[in-house]
Design goal:
Shape: extended
Number of helices: 3
Distance between the termini: 64 Å
Number of strands: 5
Order of helices and strands: EEHEHEEH
CATH topology of the domain at 29-116: Alpha-Beta Plaits
CATH class of the domain at 29-116: Alpha Beta
Strand order of the largest sheet: 3-5-4
Strand content: 15-25%
Radius of gyration: 20 Å
Helix content: 25-40%
Largest sheet: 3 strands, antiparallel
CATH architecture of the domain at 29-116: 2-Layer Sandwich
């Protein structure tokens, strides 16, 4: 059996594998599939407005499948270089072949609306390696 991946690679899987080993499917053979898209905003930004923007982009995309529920999960996240509020959008695309088009459509519209509404990205923290504690930039 041969399967084309989203990045257009062709993967060959021996047929006997399907008979002897467990097989996983992200959409169980259905045309629609859950897509998850993360957006990060600064801790001091308006989460309610940001959530509305993400919701509007999700639900109005021409690639969205409205027959299944969507959700936006909000959480605080900490990485190596910033603190942020993550808005994790979860919605179904109407056909798996449009997964990346859906993700791109939603992301472009959310980023544009964030700029228009002046919702800022997380601030990146900078450290000066080797600076003594209690000093700013080794001053």
């Amino acid at each position: 059996m041969r399967i084309a991946t989203l990045d257009d690679n062709l993967v060959s899987i021996p047929n006997n594998r399907f008979l002897t080993e467990p097989v996983a499917s992200s959409n169980a053979g259905a045309l629609d599939m859950l897509v998850q898209i993360d957006f990060h905003i600064g801790m001091d930004q308006d989460v309610t407005r940001a959530k509305r923007i993400v919701r509007d982009a999700l639900t109005s995309s021409r690639y969205a499948y409205s027959g299944k529920p969507w959700a936006i999960v909000i959480s605080e996240v900490i990485t190596e270089s910033y603190f942020a509020v993550r808005l994790r959008a979860k919605a179904y695309v109407l056909d798996v072949q449009y997964e990346k088009a859906f993700e791109t459509d939603v992301t472009e519209r959310v980023l544009q609306a964030f700029r228009e509404e002046q919702i800022a990205a997380p601030a990146v923290l900078h450290r000066h390696v080797g600076a003594p504690l209690g000093t700013q930039g080794g001053q």
